[in-house]
Amino acid sequence: HVQLVESGGGSVQAGGSLTLSCQYSVVSNCMGWFRQSPGKEREGVATIYTRSGGTYYADSVKGRFTISQDTAKNTLYLQMNSLKPEDTAMYYCAAAPLLPLTYCSGRSPWSGDFGYWGQGTQVTVS
What is the mean pLDDT of the chain? Predict the structure, then answer.
């Protein structure tokens, strides 16, 4: 069973940086970050296929966000640079224990494939 705990959210000015962390209890094939803001669908921001390190990034964050993991510390990270007001959202860490590579980092991830979620951490950019 997977338990996820996010941290690192907060309020920052446009152009600033922020790093989110997600500590997990058990490793999964696929780990990722999703976000949701009022009036919008929950979207996959970035995912990593832990068995190979392959990653996926939404077009809106490419070149600005970086997903990484420290397996020794059971921690997933999302480094966010050049933040924009439109990045404002609740960010969630999610895990899909048995999800194949093609559904994890080969294309835009579907939230329904992820069975384990953290409580969320708010990111506000102004």
Answer: 96
What is the average pLDDT across 23-40? 94
State whether residue 71 is helix, strand or coil.
Answer: helix
Query: Residues of 109-126 as b/e, b for ≥16 C-beta within 10 angstroms?
Result: bebebbebebebbebebe
pLDDT band at 1 (very low <50, low <70, confident <90, very high): confident
Check residue 90 and give its pLDDT: 98
Report pLDDT for 19: 98
Q: How far apart are CA 3 and CA 55, in angstroms?
A: 22
Query: Closest by alpha carbon to 88, among 80, 99, 96?
Result: 80
- Burial of residue 86 (CB within 10 Å: 0-12, 13-18, 19+) is exposed
Close Cβ partners of 41 (under 8 Å, ≥ 6 residues apart): none
44-66 as b/e: b if 16+ CB within 10 A: bbbbbbbeeeebbbbeebeeebe
